[in-house]
Amino acid sequence: MSPLTTIAVRAARAAGDFLLRTGERLHELRVEMKGPNDFVSEADREAERRIVEIIHRAYPDHAILGEEGGAQGEVGSHGARWIIDPLDGTTNYLHDLPWYSVSIALEIKGRLEVGVVYDPVRNELFVAERGKGARLDDRRLRVSQHTKLAGAVIGTGFPFKSQRHLDAYTESFKAVSLAGCAIRRAGSAALDLAYVAAGRFDGFWELGLQPWDIAAGVLLIQEAGGVVTDIRGGDQLMKTGNVVGGNLRVHQALMDAVKPHLGPDLPA
Ligand code: IPD
Ligand code: CA
Ligand code: CA
Question: Can you tell me which residues bind Mg(2+) (predicted)?
């Protein structure tokens, strides 16, 4: 494991352990609304603070893009920027639903190099390093070998914060469902993507995600031999947040099912 990955893992575990402990006194947490159906708690903020502290202790001049703290620092000549979601699945967390994760990625000169997703409830650590593969603890990850949508298990997320893409999403949901898939909405996009990398989900699609939801999961899927693109099959997913992933065959089948329902105004 590279020193950069070691720091990412240390930070993810520290945040996850903090979230687990804090989850025992949920009723005491202060919660605010950032927007419709979009909550943030003290736990999200403190978890991010701890992650940034660990990263900056090791790499004081690295830039940060965190969900709660926004952009911090300049991307200097080293080109390093950490992309952090300290608690992916806040709605689950605040309802004591045991399905959430910590997501930390490192991008160097615009290219993802490290991706870590940590599920503290199951103590499962998903780690990807560019060119070195993806692992769940000591096990090497491969995407599933399922070849079609019929019989596939597909993860997704509903557009519950912004209703902007609701019609496009509903139509695409119908198409995927009619293709014979079992669809799961678990509530943490980062963990969904890690599950695609692990072959637990055959594929995933969601509209309107943010860079911190997907950065680590994207590298996990790529390093597990899968394909992850924007909704039109291109590479704009970190900009648009419209994401389709899976093994080569399922990714293509998902694209074929979803694309006709998106409408020309939906960004890639
Ligand atoms: C959310 C989760 C959810 C997805 C939402 C995200 P948050 O992140 O990833 O699965 O459907 O679009 O915003 O707010 O819990 O960090
Ligand atoms: Ca998130
Ligand atoms: Ca979050």
Answer: 67, 85, 87-88, 213
CATH topology classification for 3-140? Fructose-1,6-Bisphosphatase; Chain A, domain 1 (3.30.540)
Ligand 3 centroid vs 22 CA: distance in angstroms? 15
Q: Whose CA is nearest to atom 11 of ligand 1?
A: 157
- Whether residue 14 contacts residue 87, with contact meaning beta carbons closer than 8 Å, is answered with no
For residue 168, which amino acid is it? A
Give the C-alpha separation, 140 to 120, whole Å. Answer: 20
Alpha-helical (H) ranges within 101-210 are 166-178, 189-197
Q: pTM of the prediction?
A: 0.96
Is there a contact between 128 and 223 (Cβ–Cβ < 8 Å)?
Answer: yes
Q: What is the pLDDT of residues 210-233, one digit of tens each?
A: 999 999 999 999 999 999 999 999
b/e 181-192 (16+ beta carbons within 10 angstroms → b): beeeebbbbbbb
Instruction: Report H helices in 24-69.
Output: 42-58
